[in-house]
Amino acid sequence: MPVLKADAVKKAMKKKGFVEDAGRLKHLRYKFYENGQRTSVTTHLSHNGSELDDFLVKQMAEQTCLSKAESLEMIACKIGHDELVARYADLGILKKD
């Protein structure tokens, strides 16, 4: 798998509903929001990391309750916010409407 640029990953995550929770933490924390409400879905990125290798992509996928393939599709903008909401609802993380 090719190495992913951290800036591209951050940009894709923000488009999907993840919000950066800045603070004095060792890592940047991204939390998933739905309808303006924070959910329990959270992942982390290093402050100084410019690239994400295969191991880090897998870790982020696990943190966001996605498979590695789904995580890569999200980063490539093949899975949008609505699809993530449906996925999390199916998993019981979010309430179904």
What does this entry look like structurally?
The chain has about 100 residues and is an alpha+beta fold. It is about 40% helix and about 25% strand. A hairpin with a 5-residue loop joins strand 2 (about 20) and strand 3 (about 25-35). Helix 2 (about 55-65) crosses helix 3 (about 70-75). The radius of gyration is 13 Å and the shape is globular.
Summarize the structure.
This protein has 4 helices and 5 strands.
Oligomer: single chain
- Work out the helicity level: 25-40%
Runs with pLDDT <50, length 5+?
none
Amino-to-carboxy terminus distance: 37 Å
Keywords:
97 residues; three-stranded antiparallel sheet; alpha+beta; 4 helices; two-stranded antiparallel sheet; globular
How is the topology of this model organized?
Blueprint: E1 4-5, H1 6-15, E2 18-21, E3 27-34, E4 37-46, E5 51-52, H2 54-63, H3 68-75, H4 81-90
Antiparallel strand pairs: 1-5, 2-3, 3-4
Helix pairs in contact: 2-3
